[in-house]
Amino acid sequence: MNKNIALDYIKTYNLIGIKAGANRSTFLEIWMVVVNDRVFARSWGLAEKSWYNSFLQDSKGQIQCGEFIFNIKAIVPINNDQITEAINNEYLTKYNSGHNIEYAEGIIQTKHIEKTMEFIIDEL
Fold it and tell me: InterPro entries this protein is in (predicted)?
């Protein structure tokens, strides 16, 4: 399946379905952003049983973009320090309306930046 379908969907829609690890049976809707054709998300709740921590245990998962489901591998970005500003700007740009503004400003704070995950879309 074409990665561009996923990238276009994520750029267009605010909530993207995600399954973290092999043991999840349902999709959870979270915020994702695209920077330089790379997909990122940050944990909001910071809970021990969060999607973020699930991915640290098992990097395989899926994202749901409308009717399409993509297999992904989740990684902590190697260059997080260099790309943080671009990710912050994308969150503030994409989620800049209504009640989302408060959360967009929150998700660019250090405790959430430290929980940044990158999703590598499997194109096989």
Answer: UCP028498
Question: Is residue 72 classed as helix, strand or coil in its secondary structure?
Answer: strand
Predicted confidence at residue 40, as pLDDT, reads 98
- pLDDT tier, 109 (very low <50, low <70, confident <90, very high otherwise): very high
- How far is 101 from 115, CA to CA, in rounded Å? 19
Domain boundaries, the chain: 3-120
> Domain spanning 3-120 has what CATH number?
2.30.110.10
The Cα–Cα gap between 96 and 78 comes to 27
β-pair type (68-75, 38-42): unpaired
